[in-house]
């Protein structure tokens, strides 16, 4: 990534917002199990359990802050570029076997979501910085592959 504010695709935004909602709900539930200052802690097992729950709340707080920061950064960055592939770009590709597919380059990927390609995956790394008409080569678990960029955010070469 560029190091500056990065845009986010519509699908990436949806994934981040869903994760944020899930994290906030988990945090609320976990925080509700913590004892108040006036509540006495029982034996060492109770104390260890309390520390584990407090650590979980802290972990959730950290991830919530990270996702909120990413969403704020995306708001500052604005819409993804349409002249060069970057994080947040929607890219139409033609693979070497002739199959065509539209993917979104994202930071986050949802398990099972085929249309999201993370920026740090082999295909994502190959696509970052490419322009319409360029062919990229990348490695897959079954060997080398290639794809041609047909369009970025709607600027097609067809």
TrEMBL record:
Residues 82-152 form the Transcription elongation factor GreA/GreB C-terminal domain. It comes from the Bacteria. InterPro entries: GreA/GreB_C_sf, Tscrpt_elong_fac_GreA/B_C, Tscrpt_elong_fac_GreA/B_fam. The keyword Kinase applies. GO terms for molecular function: DNA binding; kinase activity; RNA polymerase binding. Keywords: Kinase, Transferase. Residues 27-46 are annotated as: Disordered. GO terms for biological process: DNA-templated transcription elongation; regulation of DNA-templated transcription elongation. PANTHER family: TRANSCRIPTION ELONGATION FACTOR GREA. This is Nucleoside diphosphate kinase regulator. It comes from Streptomyces rubellomurinus (strain ATCC 31215). The lineage of its organism: Bacteria, Bacillati, Actinomycetota, Actinomycetes, Kitasatosporales.
């Amino acid at each position: 990534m560029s190091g500056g504010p990065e845009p986010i695709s519509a699908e990436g935004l949806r994934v981040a917002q869903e994760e944020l909602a899930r994290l906030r709900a988990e945090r609320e539930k976990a925080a509700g199990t913590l004892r108040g200052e006036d509540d006495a802690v029982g034996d060492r097992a109770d104390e260890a359990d309390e520390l584990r729950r407090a650590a979980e709340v802290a972990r959730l707080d950290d991830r919530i802050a990270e996702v909120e920061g990413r969403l704020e950064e995306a708001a500052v960055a604005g819409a993804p570029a349409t002249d060069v592939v970057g994080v947040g770009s929607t890219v139409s590709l033609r693979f070497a076997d002739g199959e065509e597919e539209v993917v979104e380059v994202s930071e986050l990927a949802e398990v099972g979501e085929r249309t999201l390609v993370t920026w740090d995956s082999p295909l994502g790394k190959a696509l970052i910085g490419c322009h319409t008409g360029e062919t990229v080569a990348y490695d897959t678990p079954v060997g080398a592959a290639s794809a041609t960029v047909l369009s970025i955010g709607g600027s097609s070469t067809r």
